[in-house]
Amino acid sequence: MNRIKFILIVVMVLGVCFSFNVFAQQPPVVIGLQGPLTGAEAIEGEMAKQSVETAARMVNERGGVLGGRMIKIELVDDACQPKAGALAAMKLVSMKEVVAAIATYGSSVTQPASDIYEKFKKVNIAYGATVTHLSERGLKYFFRTCGRTDTQGIFFADQVVPHFKAKRVAIMHDNTSFALGLAEEARNAALAAGNIDVVYFDAITPGESDYTVPLTKLREKNPEVFYFTGYFPEAGLIIRQAREIGINAVFVGGDAAINEDFIRIAGLEYAAGCYMTQEALIEYFTNPEAMEFKAKYQEAYGSLPSSPWPVYAADALMVLAEAIDKSGSTNSDVLVNYLKHEMKEFPSITGHIGFDEKGDRVGTGINLYVVNPDGSYSIVKI
Amino acid sequence: MKLIIEQLLNGLTIGSFYSLIAMGYSMVYGVMKLINFAHGDFFTFGSYMGYTLLVMGITFITSTLGVWGGMIAAMLIAAISSGVLGLTVERIAYRPIYPAGRLPAVVSALGASIFIQNAIMIIWGPRPHAYTSDVIPGFILNIAGFRINILQIIILLLSFLLMGILYYIVQKTTFGAAIRASALDRETAALMGININLIIFFIFALGPALGGVAGVMVGMYYRKISFIMGWNFGLKAFTATILGGIGNIPGAMVGGLILGVLEMLGSTYLSTAYKDVFVFLVLILVLLFRPTGILGEKIAEKV
Question: CB contact, 8 Å: A97 with chain B?
Fold first, then answer.
């Protein structure tokens, strides 16, 4: 009896050693994820973690990278605070096995964190930091899968307006820094495009009820496309009052203008057929990568990420896995070179991804959505 | 020309909202000498009560009474609930403070305003609500190139009707004479056998009730209601009251309509951003030449 036990134990020990041996030959590729796991933005951090883990599962189930090495995620918390963000970045760069970092959500956190990654030569991909100047600092290892604040304005001028074959564009904002910023970027991009006339550019006062006067002035300019960059309470009133005084221009809202409250305020009869420029709403993506991501995410967590930024974090993981696999290296300089020069139109979850010299995403996650007659949205193919 | 007519119509519509709210201000000020800062929030409350009845009880109300019946029911509910709220606020926040003088009562009114505003936010939530188009259909008529919103006409007629009724009550009936007498001199009126408590009850029920009806109309017209809208409308209505002559009810009607039209013309021909500057400039000019407002009566200095 004792002998049998002994033999069993020996076999088990051997088995463990053997399997350990297999893993030892194929150590995982560790990628860091820095995000706000605690604090006011904890929900974003939680969804980023879930999204990145889902993307890692997608990569691992296809056989991992570099001939069978699995992707492993190393989490660090930055609480969406600049100071904690710098510490989190220090923690990641101090781990030898971490080859690159997905970092991070907040712009003000990304700024100090990316300086540390730069100093220690680690590729870092931001997924929620949209402030324009982050990529204007000449950093070599900084990338982002989210757009810049000005991407949306450029998208509007370069893609949306030509899509409607329009020449005369009216842009209305509400003087808040976000709406004014988007409106100015859209106007600058439209002026740069050359063949677009910005026939109206003005602000309304948010919080009022009657916008018929500015709208009457807008009507006199006879625009073909009407871009409103403010928020949904005013957008709902504006589309209603615009249609009632006879403005028939195509109505396009910025990413804060259109949601279910907009539809309720405007009424479905006016809301249907309105468009919006919007960051990646994963719910409406139908490309195979997004479908796989959605299925896996839903299977694990029961719902979908409610904001676009976590999905951009998942994009970052897909991009890193692709770069490591195709370049055959985990060396930061090789990765930077591959990401900036060889990766073109890589089909990721939120669409095709490439990077320019500054590390900004080429090909945006932003899409044009239309409100359907039943109040749902769908992506407009441009 | 088309522009002027359209904007005049829009201005009159806004003006009629101001008038309805301003009449409540004016009545309360006339009798109590109290600037009732909570008045704008009675208006918001009425709007939310109408919303609750129409949008939340849609299948019941609109299907039994029809679209028009639903709207009238909403206005009635708004009038009653705002009236009850007005009486409650008077009892809780104003009556215990009257002996302390006028200033504490104004502060108490501000407090009541903040309280009601936040109560509305807690009950209905901070997001704006909408009178949806299944209960309030849009009616646009195209007459000779003019796009006219039928709802606008209805709102105008209805508010003129309400103003007319109130005007009749205040100017032509014995009870109205009692109200005017109380406004002139409360003590003497009481000595003449006028039941001051009944007058106070009446003005604190009717003023908020008119505000509540205006609240439902604003909801019908603009669709969007929010818990803070009472402040904006209340402030404008207060301005209208001063413009027309505070304490004078026909003055409040005229003041509201003039203010609405001025606002529209100012923003059309000057600038949207400066429309309030224009409105207040006119207010200052009127007060320079007629310190008691357009229809304000001369107040005899007490010696």
Answer: no
B229 CB burial (10 A radius; 0-12, 13-18, 19+): buried
d(Cα B207, Cα A195) in Å, to the nearest integer? 57
B27 touches B249 (CB < 8 A):
yes
User: Would you call A207 an interface residue with chain B, using a CB distance cutoff of 8 Å?
Assistant: yes
The yes-or-no answer to whether A27-147+285-365 and A151-278 have a common fold is yes
Interchain proximity B130–A244, CB inside 8 Å? no
Tens digit of pLDDT for each residue in B161-192?
Answer: 999 999 899 889 999 999 888 888 888 998 99
Average pLDDT over residues A119-148: 91
Which residues of chain A are within 8 Å of residue B127 when distances are taken between CB atoms? 261
Return d(Cα B179, Cα B8) in angstroms, integer: 33
Contact B223 A267 (CB under 8 A): yes
Class of the domain covering A151-278: alpha beta
Residues in chain A within 8 Å Cβ distance of B148: none
Separation between Cα atoms, residue A225 and residue A275, nearest integer Å: 10
Q: Express each pLDDT in A206-225 by its tens digit.
A: 888 889 889 988 999 999 99
Could you tell me if A210 lies within 8 Å of chain B, comparing CB atoms? Answer: yes
Confidence of residue A4 (pLDDT cuts 50, 70, 90): low
> A209 and B267 in contact by Cβ < 8 A?
no
Q: Which pLDDT band, with edges at 50, 70 and 90, does A10 fall under?
A: low
Say if CB A144 and CB A174 are below 8 A apart: no
For chain B, domain boundaries: 2-289
State the smallest CA–CA distance between residue B218 and chain A in angstroms: 9
Superfamily of domain A27-147+285-365: Response regulator (3.40.50.2300)
CA angle A28, A30, A32 (to 5 degrees): 165
Minimum-distance CB partner of A216 among B3, B149, B226: B3
- Structural domain B2-289, CATH architecture: Orthogonal Bundle (1.10)
CB pair distance less than 8 Å for A214 and B228: no
Digit-coded pLDDT (tens) for B74-127: 899 999 999 999 999 999 999 998 888 888 999 999 999 999 999 998 898 877
Check residue A310 and give its pLDDT.
92
Distance to chain A for B133, nearest Cα, Å: 5
Model confidence at B302, in pLDDT bands (50, 70, 90)? Answer: very low
The number of angstroms, rounded, from the C-alpha of A213 to the middle of its chain's C-alpha atoms is 37
DSSP-based three-state secondary structure for B205: helix
Bridging pattern class, strands A123-126 and A142-144: parallel
Q: What is the mean pLDDT of residues B27-34?
A: 86
Nearest one of A215, B76, B264 to B256, comparing CA atoms? B264
Q: Is A268 on the interface with B (CB under 8 A)?
A: yes
Picking from B10, B224, B268, the nearest residue to A237 by CB comes out as B224
Please say whether the beta carbons of A302 and A54 come within 8 A: no
Q: Where are the domains of chain A?
A: 27-147+285-365, 151-278
